[in-house]
Structures are given as structure tokens and as C-alpha cells.
Amino acid sequence: MVVEVRENGAVVEVADGGKAAAAAKLTVKRGEPELVAPAEATPTGEKYYLSNLDQNIAVIVQTVYCYKPPAASGGDNGDAVAVLRDALAKVLVHYHPLAGRLTISAEMKLAVELTGEGAVFVAADAGCDLADVGDLTKPDPAALGHLVYSIPGAKNILEMPPMTAQVTRFKCGGFALGLAMNHCMFDGLGAMEFVNSWAETARGAVELTVPPFLDRTLLRARDPPVISFEHHEFEEIPDVSDTAALYADQDLLYRSFCFDPDRLERVRALALAGAGAENGDDLVGGRCTTFEALSGLVWRARTRALGLAPEQRTKLLFAVDGRRRFEPPLPRGYFGNGIVLTNAVATAGELLSSPPSRAAGLVQAAVRMVTDGYMRSAVDYFEATRARPSLASTLLITTWSRLAFHGADFGWGAPAMSGPVTLPEKEVILFLAHGEERKSINVLLGLPASAMDAFQELMDEI
């Protein structure tokens, strides 16, 4: 794929067929899929409990890690397939639920049948060099989908294993690791810890730096459930602006916008400029984080770009890591979803007629709302209702900017590139760390063509 970096830092598509060219260059021949079972005996014949936080986000997340040829990485590539396969068998001893299969429990919830049959592993060869993959600053399912293995004919997640892995060797000597993992098995931090444990096992480690804590019953619902918050994250908001027609009538474009440290500071300054008593003390203490400022900016810009009616209620969802917010905190290495979705709701008119501090303040309030009480209430809400968060008239921000996926060194150095294959839903925006020092943030999103042009103009002003 080809991208152009403008002087103001916005990264956009170049309309020259670069995306199609990348997909055309990347031809991959897969071998037969095999099952990699744990290298030692693990518990079998029972069901592994998944918490209510796991139930909410049972979707497949696909990521790709690309590694340079041995001359560029300074090591001997050897047989990456054999090294990663053997290390996977060893690390699955610790993460043995990943070797099982999803099922439905007696409570009519997702659980894992501990079969021990193994993770699906595929070796593949690409008919091109790693350089032909392009730049992972923007999801490209047409090209990157060749690097991740999906179960043919699977109709639902019960027919998909918790994880599949594909190792693709390139003509230049580099290779790519493509993972398809069910979000119900772990959140971003948990996935990062698993991949890094796999990597250090491949490098010869006997003991894991962060061994997984497998008992998810720590997050069982209370009996009876106690729902003490309104939980608007589950609310279905009517689409009075008829954005559904906009998405149906126009092509969906994906673009990536890079915010370097200077640009991020300008975003914070914009949010802080309007704060104060005259605006209802939008920001506590007149302060805000980079995340709060950037999230508020993107929420407002997307609202304007989509042309939402002033009376349109719009919801912002994002995940907050609850590991340290639970009382007591979740144990180190907790294997599962420790994140909780929090929310902010406003009308389009309120967002766009108020200074940026208003949107940033709503984000800040949503972050501060996430206490042990709120998270326990969310767990109990699902127990009582079996409701899942609604994306109607919603923006869902997923933040990967703090995840150290660059630490996935299997013996050939850190990945030269890593990133998502696609965004899971049209309502999702992804924040990714960017640059060697990881101080910049790439904002990835998809919008109908006309809305993307309007969003681009708004970003150009910053």
C-alpha cells in the first residue's frame, strides 16, 4: 500500500492504486493446517470459566507482526516456522485454555472446553519480499488477510478455535506472524503478555517473566446481582440522522492520521483553552490527559464530518483497564479481559456548539466513573440482562498505544512492523503508538467517502 505523509502530519491514502497493488503483489501459498498441542499434559475434560467481561467482546482480532531478513536483523533466520511451532507447544502448557475449544455452558454462556487438542498452526510462503507488504499504518484486509489464517466455512465463533497462527516466509528471508485470536480469551494487555511469553520461550527462556493467572472466577457476578449504575454503554440510540443511508450509498474509506508529540500538545491546548467555570468546569482542575483531549477531538470531528443532526444523541465508548481499579486489584498476569467499557453521551448540538473542553470533560468523567463499584455493576448488569454493548449511533475508541507489542522478539529482534489487519466494525477507531520512541499516535478510522473528506479537512486545521 502507498501512503503520503503531509507536512502537518496527516497520513492519507494516495489514489494511485497503491492499495490494490499491494494486495496483488502479496501472493501466499499455505501449507496444510496442523494442531499444535501443549508440550506437556494439561487439564482436560472440564469447562474453563469465562467471566461476564469476556462474554461482551467475543470477536476475532487479527494482527500481523513482520520481521526483517537475517541480514537486516543481525541474526540467523534459520527455520522460523519450526522455532515458533516448538515454542508455541511449550507456552501452551502455561496458557492451556488456548488449546481448547469454545462451547456453551449450562448457564448459556461462553466457556472453553478443555480438550487439549491444540492451537491451529499454518506454515506459508509468500511469492514476494517483505517490503512488498507495505506500511502497516493503515489496516488493509485485502493484502494483510493473506498473512492470517481463518477457518474455512466457519459460521460462528463456536466453530473457530480460540487462536490460529500463520508463519509466512518471504523470498527475502523475512517472515510474518499472523494471529487470529478471540477477544473473549484476553484483552490487549493479556494478548501482549501471551505473545511476549511465546517470544521469550522461543528465545530459550525456561521460566516466564509474567506467568498467566488463569482463575477468572475472581470476576463472578454477585448473587443476587447489584446494578448501581445506568450503563448507557448498552443503550440503543435511534439513528435520527439516517447515517445508515450514508454508509450504504458511499464507499467506506480507511485513513490514518499521525499525531506527533507537538501535534498532541496542540490538541491538549485546544481542550484546555475552553476550560473554566464559565463552561461548567468541564475539566477537573483545568487539566486533562492526552487521551482525553484526543478522544474528545476525534469524537467532535467525526460528529461534524458525518453531519449529525443537532438533536442526534451520540455515544462514545472506550475501554478502561480495570486491573488496578478493582478492589483488590487483579493479580499480575491475569489471563482474561480486565477491561471495562465506559461511556459518554451527548447530543451532536451540545458537542459542536461547546468548546473542545466540553468533549474532553465528558471523556474525563467517563474515565473517573470507572471504579470497583462501576465495574462490579457492569458484571452484574450482564448477569441480569445478557445484554451486549450497542454500537448504534456510537463511536468506539480502542487504544493500543500503550501496548508493548514491539517486545515480541522471537530471536530475530523486535518486529519491523506490527498492526491490525482490519478494524472490526465501522464504528471503531483505533489509537496506535507510532515511531521508534512510540511517542506519536496514529488514529485509524473508516468513514463514508464524503465524511472522510470532511474529517480530513478538520484534521488539517490542527
TrEMBL record:
Keyword list, A-Z: Acyltransferase, Transferase
Coiled-coil region(s): none
UniProt xrefs under InterPro entries: CAT-like_dom_sf, Plant_Fungal_Acyltransferase
Gene3D superfamilies the record matches: Chloramphenicol acetyltransferase-like domain
Lineage: superkingdom: Eukaryota
Molecular function in Gene Ontology: hydroxycinnamoyltransferase activity
Family according to the record: Belongs to the plant acyltransferase family.
Name of protein: Omega-hydroxypalmitate O-feruloyl transferase
Gene: LOC127754064
